[in-house]
Write a structure and sequence with these properties.
The chain has one domain (5-257): Endonuclease/exonuclease/phosphatase (Deoxyribonuclease I, Chain A), CATH 3.60.10. The chain is 16% helix and 37% strand. The chain has helices at 43-48, 69-73, 147-171, 191-195, and strands at 5-8, 11-14, 26-33, 54-58, 77-81, 91-95, 100-110, 113-117, 120-127, 130-138, 174-180, 198-200, 226-231, 235-242, 251-257. The chain is globular, with a radius of gyration of 17 Å. 39% of the residues are buried.
């Protein structure tokens, strides 16, 4: 099936405009797949202990598996995309850096019913005279999904790369792309990302052999399907993984050097 349309859809749950100065030179970002049925009550408090500037929460819906109150109380802004037909492909971005949030709907027909998926969203801002775009993605898997959704994976990654190229050409933006891509590092579907002058951060990390996901039947994580990609002009000080209560994924956290 062919893609029917792309539409922008944004819900801003809170917005404040005071300037924010990053402590030091690092932009600290966490990328986390929460699992849509997660009911652990300590997720928000545990995430806040990371003291990140930006949180990318995949498979997340405010009021369902994300409580906005602890973040709002700490002065964060919360941006939520909740138009997907599948809650698992909604996302939430939480930031204490002021910026411009955008999100994309992709609609397909499965049989006679429209299927809406929001596989990625972006957040644009400027810091230290650097124009930056942070993109969160949760790309559908290639198994156990309708063929139309499987095809959407390729479209979603191509749309992400078009956005990267447009932002770089128009604004000179550097890009940080993170999320659950539901695929292994050697999958050719990731080639357009690497061809758009982004690097897979974990390849330069001492944790490059870490796995991030496990099936329900496994006691250990068996595959790396969660990623941080950054522009080649950016540098990371570290990339670490951390446990997420109730999720089948590890979260990833990185510090981007913005000197």
């Amino acid at each position: 099936m062919k893609l029917l349309f792309i539409a922008l859809s944004v819900m801003v749950l809170a917005a404040c405009t005071p300037a924010y100065e990053l402590p030091g030179t690092d932009l600290k970002i966490a990328s986390v797949n929460l699992f849509i049925d997660n009911t652990d009550k300590n997720i928000e408090e545990n995430l806040l202990l990371l003291d990140c500037d930006i949180y990318l929460l995949h498979e997340a819906v405010v009021g369902k598996n994300v409580d906005s109150t602890p973040f709002l109380d700490k002065g964060y802004d919360i941006y939520s995309h909740t138009s997907s037909s599948f809650d698992a492909f909604n996302g939430v971005l939480i930031s204490r850096v002021p910026g411009d949030f955008k999100s994309v709907d992709l609609e397909y027909y499965y049989g006679f019913d429209p299927v809406v998926v929001a596989p990625f969203y972006s957040f644009d801002f400027t810091y230290n005279d650097k124009a930056l775009s942070v993109i969160g993605a949760h790309v559908p898997p290639a198994v156990f999904m309708p063929q139309e959704i499987v095809e959407l994976r390729k479209n979603a990654i191509e749309d992400i790369c078009r956005g990267i190229t447009k932002g770089r050409d128009a604004m000179g933006r550097e890009v940080i792309l993170a999320g659950d891509f539901n695929t292994h590092p050697s999958d050719k579907i990731l080639d357009p990302i690497l061809d758009s002058s982004l690097e897979d951060v974990i390849l330069y990390s001492e944790n490059r052999y870490d796995k991030t996901w496990k099936p329900d039947i496994s006691p250990v994580k068996l595959a790396r399907i969660d990623y941080f990609f950054i522009s080649t002009n950016l540098h990371t000080r570290y990339l670490d993984s951390f446990s997420v209560a109730g999720s089948d994924h590890s979260g990833l956290i990185t510090g981007i050097d913005l000197k």
